[in-house]
Thiamine-monophosphate kinase
Amino acid sequence: MIQNKPSSQTDLPQEFAFIRQHFSALAGAAALELRDDAAVFTPPEGRELVIAADGMVENVHFLPDDPPETIGRKLLRCNLSDLAAMGSRPEGWLLTFARPPHITEQWVAQFCKGLKADQEQFGLQLLGGDTTSTRGPLVLSLTILGSVLPGQAIRRQGAQAGDGLWVTGTIGDGALGLRALQGEIADPSGYLAQRYRLPQPRIGLPLYGLASAAMDISDGLLQDAGHLARENTLHVTIHAEAVPLSDAARQTSPKWLETCLTGGDDYEILFAVPAQHEATLLENGTLDTVCGPVQVTRIGEFTQGPTGVTVLDSAGKNLQFRSHGWSHL
């Protein structure tokens, strides 16, 4: 039977009305007003596409009482961090939203408010996605598209023995922020909680021509440094006293060092730098991003030897940890 086209939002099937109410304002031209089966996206001329995906699950990647606005922003920022690690410019994103009964219309409106703020800040638009219901926790999955000039994507492979290991920003704030929200440590300024809820993606970091390899730190500094070591069949040594910590992190007990190094939720960029490029970095101490300069710190070096990670204290003693980072399985 041929049906008449809905004349208003109230005539739409429930899912379509939900999409139009909350997501239409986020959609770019390629999304075709979210009315078709797929988006029609024209890649920027002379550039290669970079595509990544990340999911977040309630009570796993965020707390049930986290503000919905920050959950939306964190979801987008975690994916933006993957683009930043490859030297990519953001272009667009797709969202899968599995909604449980306890998620209200007001919650979704605030969630989308956060997404809108960040897509405007970082210069990308919604292309499409999918919505469904679930009896389980809230499940969010975002696929992001970026672009780079041909051959300029920075990969995890490419580091050489003798390269320095560098990191942006500070390490451990996100993991400590989670512990603060769970009542395990004090966070009088709220800085650590804010860093957990709103990581800062390093979009625009000028890695091409500087870094030989890079990746973002999501699962813990030690674990992700191990990934870089394995990808390049090298050993990496990290000097614990060189790892940059924020003032808020330093004010916690030294017993939280392991959490800082292995807890994850940093979304900083870990990158290898050949020796000939390190002098300039050591002198300047910062690199530019779209959100302004970010501190960069040399925390170790790559060497030939058994693939893996060694962490040394200020006396050169090998530090041992129960875990190197977060496991997804």
About this structure: The domain at 164-312 is CATH 3.90.650.10 (Phosphoribosyl-aminoimidazole Synthetase; Chain A, domain 2). Residues 1-11 have pLDDT under 50 and may be disordered. The radius of gyration is 21 Å.
